[in-house]
Amino acid sequence: MPDAGPDAPAPAPAPADPQGWCVCGQRVAIAGARAVTLTNGRPGWEGHCPACGSPLFAIRRRAAGG
Ligand SMILES: [Zn+2]
């Protein structure tokens, strides 16, 4: 029986659960959210609304308040 090697590399860090207000009028968890940098240099999230499919953008807040 071969030695049990490392099954898999370190798991990717679980993404945050960014939420944003959608044009459909409700606050939703941004589906397919990915970290992006907005045109003004601020960190943000880009994704879409799981309810209506509209594209969503949200400001990504830093861990420490500020
Ligand atoms: Zn929506």
List keywords for this structure.
66 residues, three-stranded antiparallel sheet, two-stranded antiparallel sheet, 5 strands, 36% strand, elongated
Rg (C-alpha, Å): 17 Å
What spatial order of strands do you see in the largest sheet?
A: 3-4-5
Measured as a percent range, the helix fraction is: under 10%
Distance between the termini: 55 Å
Number of helical stretches of at least 4 residues: 0
* SSE series: EEEEE
Largest sheet: 3 strands, antiparallel
Structural class given helices, strands, pairing? mainly beta
Mean pLDDT metric: 82
Give your account of this protein's structure.
By secondary structure, the protein is mostly beta strands. It has a domain at 31-66. It is built from no helices and 5 strands. It has strands at 19-21, 27-29, 31-37, 43-48, 55-59. The strands form 2 sheets. Strands 3-4-5 form a 3-stranded antiparallel β-sheet, with no helix packed on it. Strands 1-2 form a two-stranded antiparallel ribbon. Strand 3 and strand 4 (43-48) form a beta hairpin. The protein is elongated. The termini are far apart. The mean pLDDT is 82. Zinc ion (ZN) binds next to loops.
